[in-house]
Specification:
Layout lengths: L9 H10 L2 H20 L14 E7 L5 H16 L5 E9 L2 E8 L5 H15 L11 E4 L8 E7 L3 H17 L4 E7 L4 E7 L1 H7 L3 H11 L2 E9 L2 E8 L5 H5 L9 H4 E7 L4 E5 L2 E10 L5 H16 L8 E8 H31 L2 H24 L6 H30 L4 H25 L1 H6 L4 H36 L5 H50 L3 H29 L7 H25 L19 H18 L1 H13 L2 H6 L13 E8 L5 H17 L1 H4 L3 E7 L2 E7 L6 H14 L6 E5 L12 E8 L2 H16 L4 E5 L7 E7 L1 H6 L4 H13 L1 E8 L2 E9 L7 H5 L2 E3 L4 E3 L4 E7 L3 E5 L2 E10 L5 H12 L9 E3 L4 H30 L14 H19 L1 H16 L7 H11 L1 H16 L4 H11 L1 H20 L10 H43 L3 H14 L1
Parallel strand pairs: 7-22
Antiparallel strand pairs: 1-3, 1-4, 2-3, 2-26, 5-12, 5-13, 6-12, 7-10, 8-9, 11-12, 11-15, 14-16, 14-17, 15-16, 18-27, 18-28, 19-27, 20-25, 21-22, 23-24, 26-27
Helix pairs in contact: 1-14, 2-12, 2-16, 3-4, 10-11, 11-12, 11-13, 11-37, 12-13, 12-16, 13-14, 13-16, 13-37, 14-16, 14-31, 14-34, 14-35, 17-19, 18-19, 20-36, 20-38, 21-38, 31-32, 31-34, 32-35, 32-38, 33-38, 34-38, 35-36, 35-38, 36-38, 37-38
Length: 1190
């Protein structure tokens, strides 16, 4: 039978224009490829797209010797008040501890960061006069994605720290910064030189000096400032006053009184600053360094050059082997390893997809023709990235790798339709023109559905990071799909028209020689199908015999079983309702009342099954129907057999629509199994798999030598078991309050192995008195855990908040199900407090403020304006000799100058020991107090968090204090899921509207000219039917994704969520192709059921080809273990592959069922509307013959 000729349509004339001008199209293609190749060579290379991390600035304000409370009151609040005047700020967070304040300012995504930095510096200059004079140099750190460090490395040094520090500062740092493309190198841990005036306390007391006056004079006399400019002899001069000290001798000669000099009261020395933190790497003391590149340089090139220079420094004779360099990682290596992994996945997946195409097409030239569209589309998509200002990064490459299997979809459908028409008798050119015009609408619609799903994600999400991440992955994938559509509809028909027809003789001989090899997969598949058929027949017989035996015993007792089921259901429902009411009255977590209704519904279903269906099942045939039993050796090829089975399944589903719906709903209900058991990781909180870290907190402060000894015991324990534990390097960083130890592996480790190692270390690490061990991912990271939850209190004053927090801890400890309630109070250190008696101080003529300043600078010194030492400035301090001021007794005997004499501190003040605060957290101007608790049953996380909030509602909160409900892990995860849900629903709505607009219903054209209101409603409904039918494939795609993730044990991570959104636009393609074929066959006059069954058969090959090429193309990406420092895309590929495979299997019979059901519903609605919109007399006349006949 020859196909109908549609060559007179407008689209056919357009494709005829393309097919008849091969030279023009070839020239256009070459022009596009050359332009794209040039653009790709200039495409910037980055690790992550710009803006993926929120733009933020971190302000470091060191204030040595100050407590956390003092830093909060005198530093953090002052800076926060100045920052509140800036616009474009999303959040201001302050982390306050002894000696240091860190303020992190997060900006809106649209803020100009250069201007923001300038404004922040201006506000800091305004705040400087209000800050304590002890605050040292303020540092500003930018952490936007464009300024990420390109390399992290350690510098191991020996015992001569003075020599090592000089080499690092004078040799290593300048040579690394001289590498082309490096903007700066920052090295942490090198002691800074400082100039210090060390006073003898006894000499100062004997001289009866006012040290406050001396400090003010020294601060005022050590300065340099411009005075103006003048001209002399036609030359212009700048006048500058320089009163800075020129050397130690000049400082020592500074006059204190007419007869005293500073050297008479002490000594002036140039020494190293006091160290407050040490780092050891693999047992050796070390510095930690990071390097940054300038904005114009290539990340990979700079990383390679910098790593080569570091290797060369290790051999420098000037260093004489005193320094050892240990790179931890480079951004360039991360980019290269990630891209290499994705390239490998793309090439392997593309090769497997090409093999699938060859199996189906069985034509080498057509297969290569389709495969050529993959690199062409990828190159055009990368050129689009260049011209739109994008970059080539790991997310871009991930989008291209993900789309490799999808790129052939459009080409496969076009080529398959052209080949089918050619097989029906059309010549090559006519088959190309008509085949492309017939399928153009379907492939265009399927491509647009894949594109529109990203619109809500790119433009409408409230989280900028998610929007940028989705755009970085989605834009390349969308452009890839659009360019593949362009290649399939414009360039491919030109080539396919000339490849149709008989093969040349030499090619025919080659094809015949390859037949035995090509038949191997078919024979293996045939053997597998034969084995499955035998197993099915045997299982039917065995299970049938077993079922009939059981039913012979059960059927006579069926009414007793029904009664017992209802009795159990009623008792269980009563217990559930009682428990729910009891829990609700006491504010405790408990079961929901809807569970009782579910139990009764199950009992009703069992009643129907047991009471009415058991007898039918008992009388069922003992063997499967004869039509399903394999007889003899099949003669049809495998694809034809699959086609026959597909038509049989579609016919059965249409004939038994109720059973098919029940089967589909039952399959969907199984989604609760993976949903409740799979591992889910919130956005941006994926577990790292190449290091393990734990912290050690000391209950009391030590000096650095004692801290080194304490941390060394953990290091010795780890080194003794290094071969057993398997780590390659370790780093120990410690201070007086505690330390951190990190274990590093050269190769990426499976998360399961690290989890087992973490559990082992929890048990086996030395349990030293006064130490608290906390692993990264435990209590301080409750948001990452499925067993930890947090509750946050907010208020203006930290002291009052601590009091309220102590009450909150007692309330939470009383909540059943919450365990190990922890708070910042548990880690609070002891501290000394000086309590002034104001009356005594006033009577002795002592100003308490002056007394406080005296104590402060006596204990920690006073920072003077920085000392100018050659080409640099170093800290300049005045302080007592440390050996003269040590101990509690020295503090009690400290004397304060009252203007005429010195008064002992003990005369008007007391010193006591009290619990202090180790750290204070503030957010947006308010202090926060976070309490964390372990959840006994992770499945009740939400219930227990709500119970904890109800318990905290009993707190009598003063005005200005509140309970924050937005910081919990479940709350944040629910917000993420709700936002994703809204994006998914909007994506589905856009797909639906797009199909409604573009799906022309051929059955409504005859009524368009004289359409009334009823006809317009029916026309709209007929347009909605195919769209709704296609949407039925999306739930089964989600079902397949979650089941495959669960079966493979792959955790759903932040990138994996994208796969679910992508599926909404991909899986509908199969349904679109089916519905388009149904409409065409019905337009040709075929009855609906026959058209549906025939359409399922005709579109089976392209559907299987597109699904298999995509799924098999994703297999390497889904199974390949990520290399070191590369991103993990397994969840993304698994979601797409599993969802597409499951949706394809269900679409071949769910779409026909949904289509026929909705079509019948529209027909019934049309009859009802026509009946009720008739005049009343017409309805009575139509009903009269019916009544008469009755």
């Amino acid at each position: 039978m020859s196909p109908p000729d549609h060559a007179t349509s407008g689209s056919a004339r357009m494709y005829e224009f393309f097919v008849r001008r091969p030279i023009a199209l070839t020239s256009l293609l070459v022009l596009l490829l050359v332009t794209s190749a040039i653009a790709f060579s200039r495409l910037p290379l980055q690790l992550l797209p710009s803006g993926l991390q929120q733009a933020r600035l971190t302000i470091f304000l060191p204030n040595p010797g100050a407590t956390a409370q003092e830093n909060e009151a005198r530093v953090a609040r002052v800076v926060e008040e100045q920052l509140q005047t800036l616009s474009g700020i999303e959040r201001v967070r302050s982390f306050i501890e002894a000696d240091m304040v860190r303020v992190r300012v997060t900006f809106d995504a649209n803020v100009d960061m250069d201007l923001a930095k300038a404004e922040v510096r201006d506000r800091l200059e305004r705040a400087r006069p209000q800050l304590p004079e002890t605050v040292e140099q303020i540092q500003l750190w930018s952490s936007d994605a464009d300024q990420m460090p390109i390399i992290w490395f350690g510098i191991l040094h020996g015992d001569d720290e003075d020599r090592s520090g000089w080499l690092v500062d004078r040799v290593v740092k300048p040579r690394l910064e001289a590498v082309a493309g490096v903007s700066r190198v920052e090295i942490f841990g090198v002691l800074e030189d400082s100039m210090r005036i060390l006073l003898d306390e006894q000499r100062v007391e004997a001289a009866q000096l006012d040290l406050g006056d001396l400090i003010r004079r020294l601060s005022a006399d050590n300065f340099a400032q411009p005075l103006g400019e003048f001209e002399d002899g036609g030359r212009r001069y700048l006048l500058r006053s320089d009163m800075r000290f020129a050397g130690e001798q000049q400082v020592g000669d500074y006059p204190v009184t007419d007869k005293l000099r500073i050297r008479d009261l002490g000594e002036v020395v140039k020494v190293k600053s006091v160290r407050d933190r040490l780092t050891r790497i693999d047992g050796s003391y070390a510095y930690f360094a990071i390097a940054f590149k300038d904005s114009q340089s290539n990340v990979v090139d700079v990383s390679r050059a910098l790593k080569r220079r570091i290797e060369e420094l290790g051999d420098e004779p000037e260093l004489a082997g005193q320094l050892t360099f240990l790179p931890f990682g480079t951004q360039g290596e991360i980019i290269e390893s990630s891209l290499d992994q994705l390239k490998s996945s793309a090439f392997i997946g593309g090769g497997l997809a090409l093999l699938v195409l060859f199996v189906f097409l069985r034509r080498v030239r057509l297969t290569l023709c389709v495969a050529a569209g993959v690199p062409i589309s990828a190159l055009l998509a990368l050129a689009w990235e260049y011209f739109t200002g994008g970059s080539f990064n790991v997310l871009t490459m991930a989008g291209i790798t993900l789309g490799v299997g999808m790129l052939v979809d459009n080409a496969v459908v076009v080529v398959e339709n052209i080949s089918r028409l050619h097989a029906l008798g059309l010549d090559g050119r006519r088959a190309a023109i008509q085949g492309t015009s017939e399928i153009a609408l379907a492939v265009t619609l399927s491509t647009l559905t894949s594109v529109v799903v990203f619109l809500p994600l790119i433009f409408m999400t409230e989280q900028p990071m998610l929007r940028i991440m989705f755009a970085a992955l989605g834009v390349p994938l969308c452009s890839l799909q659009i360019f593949s559509l362009l290649v399939a509809l414009v360039f491919l028909p030109v080539v396919a028209a000339r490849l149709q027809g008989p093969r040349p003789r030499w090619l025919e001989r080659c094809a015949l020689a390859l037949v035995p090899i090509a038949m191997i997969p078919a024979r293996l598949l045939h053997g597998l199908l034969w084995l499955l058929e035998k197993l099915r027949a045997g299982a039917w017989l065995v299970l049938g015999a077993l079922a009939r035996t059981l039913l012979r015993w059960i059927v006579p007792l069926r009414f007793a079983l029904v009664a017992a089921a209802w009795a159990a259901a009623l008792w269980w429902s009563y217990e559930l309702v009682s428990s729910a009411r009891f829990a609700a009255q006491r504010g405790l977590p408990g079961p929901s009342q809807w569970q009782a209704g579910l139990v009764l519904a199950v009992a009703a279903l069992l009643t129907w099954l047991v009471g009415w269906k058991l007898r039918d099942w008992r009388d069922a045939p003992a063997a499967p129907p004869a039509a399903t039993v394999a007889r003899g050796r099949p003669v049809l090829p495998i694809l034809e057999r699959i086609d026959a089975w597909n038509r049989a399944v579609a016919a059965w589903a249409i004939g038994h629509r109720f059973a098919a719906v029940v089967l589909g709903v039952g399959a969907m209900l199984t989604i609760f199994v993976p949903m409740t058991r799979m591992t889910v990781t919130p956005f941006g909180e994926d577990s790292n798999t190449d290091y393990l870290e734990f912290d050690v907190e000391f209950s009391s402060d030590f000096d650095l030598s004692e801290s080194s000894e304490q941390m060394g015991r953990y290091e010795d324990w780890l080194v003794a078991r290094q071969a057993e534990l398997g780590f390659d390097h370790y780093a120990c960083n410690f201070s007086r309050e505690g330390g951190e130890i990190e274990l590093f592996w050269d190769d990426r480790q499976p998360p399961s192995r690290l989890e087992k190692l973490r559990d082992r270390l929890h048990v086996e690490l030395p349990q030293l008195p006064g130490h608290k061990i906390r692993f990264w991912g435990d209590e301080d990271e409750a948001s990452r855990s499925r067993t930890l939850t947090s509750f946050t209190l907010r208020g203006p004053e930290s002291t009052e908040l601590e009091r309220i927090g102590a009450q909150a801890i007692r309330l939470l400890e009383a909540v059943p199900g919450l365990q190990s309630v922890a708070s910042p109070l548990q880690a609070a250190p002891d501290q000394l407090r000086v309590l002034f008696d104001r009356e005594k101080a006033h009577g002795m003529g002592v100003d308490p403020q002056m007394a406080q300043q005296t104590i402060s600078w006596v204990l920690r010194g006073f920072p003077l304006p920085r000392y100018h030492d050659r080409d640099r400035e170093i800290p300049f301090l005045i302080e007592y000799d440390s050996t003269s001021t040590a101990g509690m007794e020295t503090l009690r005997d400290l004397s304060v100058f009252n203007g005429s004499s010195r008064v002992a501190l003990s005369a008007f003040a007391d010193v006591e020991v009290a619990r202090g605060t180790r750290a204070i957290y503030r957010e947006n101007g308010q202090t926060t107090f976070t309490i964390q608790a372990r959840v006994a049953d992770p499945t009740r996380m939400k219930e227990l968090q709500e119970a904890g909030l109800r318990a905290l509602s009993a707190l009598d909160l003063p005005r200005g204090y509140s309970i924050d409900t937005s910081e919990g892990a479940m709350q944040r995860q629910q917000e993420e899921f709700s936002e994703l849900g809204r994006a998914l629903m909007l994506s589905v709505a856009l797909v639906f509207l797009l199909m409604v607009v573009l799906f022309e219903s051929p059955l409504s054209e005859a009524r368009r000219a004289s359409a009334g209101l009823v006809d317009l409603v029916l026309i709209l409904c007929e347009a909605v039917v195919p769209a709704l039918s296609v949407l039925m494939t999306i739930p089964f795609a989600v079902l397949g994704s979650l089941w495959l993730l669960y079966l493979l044990g792959t955790a759903m991570d932040s990138i994996g969520y994208i796969g679910l959104i992508i599926l909404a636009g991909i899986v509908v393609n199969n349904g679109i192709v089916l519905i388009d074929c149904f409409h065409r066959l019905r337009e040709e006059g075929m009855e609906r059921t026959a058209a549906v069954v025939e359409g399922c058969g005709r579109r089976l090959r392209p559907i299987l080809m597109t699904a298999l090429t995509t799924v098999i193309g994703l297999v390497p990406m889904a199974t390949q273990e990520p290399s070191q420092n590369s991103l993990d895309y397994r969840a993304l590929a698994t979601c797409v592959a599993g969802g597409l495979a499951c949706s394809t299997l269900f679409a071949l019979w769910i779409v026909p069922v949904a289509y026929t059901l909705l079509d019948d519903a529209v027909g019934w609605l049309g009859r009802q509307l026509k009946w009720w919109t008739r005049p009343r007399e017409a309805r009575r006349a139509a009903a009269a013959p019916v009544a008469h006949g009755a």
